[in-house]
Amino acid sequence: MTIEGNERSDGPGCACGDLSDEQRRILRDHGTERAGTSPLNDEKRSGRYCCAGCGHELFRSEKKYDSGSGWPSFFDVEDNGVGVSEDTRFGMYRVEVHCACCRGHLGHLFPDGPLPTGKRYCMNGLALQFIADDEASTEKGS
């Protein structure tokens, strides 16, 4: 099965391991988690946010902020981290945000974020994997 032309990657070959049923519903079936349920809302450590489906780097913690929306929000993305597409489901127009690598659904983009971009990347926490900078150093043997 494909997502907008890319191979699905939700099995053992996935960079972040197998997806839970809820992660699969969000990433592959364009679902949404309930507001306020993601532990990543309260994540304050320095690090990177990667796609839970393939491990591709999407955001840095320095660009995360508390939007009050109940979902992890960012005002900017990493270069080549995400792609966007038009979402007209449910009778409204929104801009969908997906992983630039595996095309997994991450959330939506809104024009009400803080400066300098004015953008709010409103993400499903289950679509993300947080890797703290101190954990990344340990992985590299530092």
Describe the structure.
The chain is mainly β and 142 residues long. 11% of the residues lie in helices and 31% in strands. The protein is built from 2 helices and 11 strands, in the order ββαβββββββββα. Strands 5-6-10-9-8-7 form a 6-stranded antiparallel β-sheet. A 3-stranded antiparallel β-sheet has the order 4-3-11. A two-stranded antiparallel ribbon has the order 1-2. A hairpin with a 2-residue loop joins strand 1 and strand 2. The chain starts with a strand and ends with a helix. The N terminus is likely disordered.
Give the secondary structure arrangement, pairings included:
Blueprint: E1 2-3, E2 6-7, H1 21-29, E3 47-51, E4 57-60, E5 64-65, E6 73-74, E7 82-87, E8 94-99, E9 105-110, E10 120-123, E11 128-132, H2 133-139
Antiparallel strand pairs: 1-2, 3-4, 3-11, 5-6, 6-10, 7-8, 8-9, 9-10
- How many DSSP H or I helices? 2
- Helix share, percent: 10-25%
How much of the polypeptide forms β-strand, as a percent range?
25-35%
Computed CA radius of gyration, to the nearest angstrom: 15 Å
Please give the largest β-sheet.
6 strands, antiparallel
Class inferred from helices and paired strands:
mainly beta
Q: What is the 3D shape? A: globular
With strands numbered from the N-terminus, the spatial order across the biggest sheet is 5-6-10-9-8-7
Helix-strand topology string? EEHEEEEEEEEEH
Q: Unreliable segments (pLDDT under 50, ≥5 consecutive)?
A: 1-15
Total strands: the figure is 11
Q: What is the residue-averaged pLDDT?
A: 87
Q: Report how far apart the termini are.
A: 40 Å
